[in-house]
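Exam review. A common question shows you a sequence with its structure tokens and asks you to describe the fold in words. Practice with the pair below. Do the first one on your own.
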Amino acid sequence: MKHIIWDWNGTLFHDIDAVVGATNEVFRPYGVAAFDHDGFRAAYTRPI
């Protein structure tokens, strides 16, 4: 049997570095200034 583990809130993997890095890479070609952790948390909302 195979399982998928979904770590929605970062309890298994503290992913803020990966999330902020990926966000900055996606928006870089559009000239959006890079986010730091606090800036990302301030701008992040749900639904995305």
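Now try the second one, then compare your answer with the model answer below.
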Amino acid sequence: MEVVKIENVARSYQVGKVETQALRGVNLSIESGEFTALVGPSGSGKTTLLQMIGCLDQPTSGNVCINGKDVTRLNRNQRADMRRGTIGFIFQFFALIPTLTAYENVEMPLLLNGHSPKERRDRVMELLQAVDLVERANNRPDQLSGGQQQRVAVARALAPKPTLILADEPTANLDTTNGKQVMDIMKKLNKETGVTFVFATHDPRVISYADRVVTLQDGLITKDSRS
């Protein structure tokens, strides 16, 4: 089943009198359960493409479909609903709420989606167990290492049971040991739950985990290979 379908997507930005073409007619399909890396140099378009898939930006032309729904036809509130219910995000700088504990950060999407206290508790503890952080449940982000914070972010992204996880440079701020641990966890959860992962990266460590590597250059896909 296609989770993502990109059809002839272009995205241009106007800065003063200069127009920049970030994407130039990209076509891409991603199947359920894939573990896909978007790679390429800075300015290649990989982050822009990730933002299109995540309903964080709209194409200048072309169509983006998530789970068969054309999200380019949705209004802002409908795109927000799509993100909240279908897509999980993992960011380079973790993006945890600093005043909340690890438990509360993972719980937040479930609160927003109206889950009962028992449903929230069961799901949060299940995920903290999956990322090996049960003993850190009551710690705030400033009491956690960078690797632990990113593992909390992984758990939070998975909390509402999305069909798609998008990760932007998930290991960029981690050392080799913590980067490997985070990628091992993401790969394990991909295999166990079937959730689709798409991540943008420069990191060879991350690329080595991918089942599929999509290379972008100057806003175009120049290579698409599966392991």
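Model answer, second protein: Strands lie at 2-15, 18-31, 35-39, 61-66, 69-70, 87-90, 164-168, 196-201, 212-217, 220-226. Residues 2-226 form a domain with the Rossmann fold fold (CATH 3.40.50.300). Full marks require stating both points clearly.
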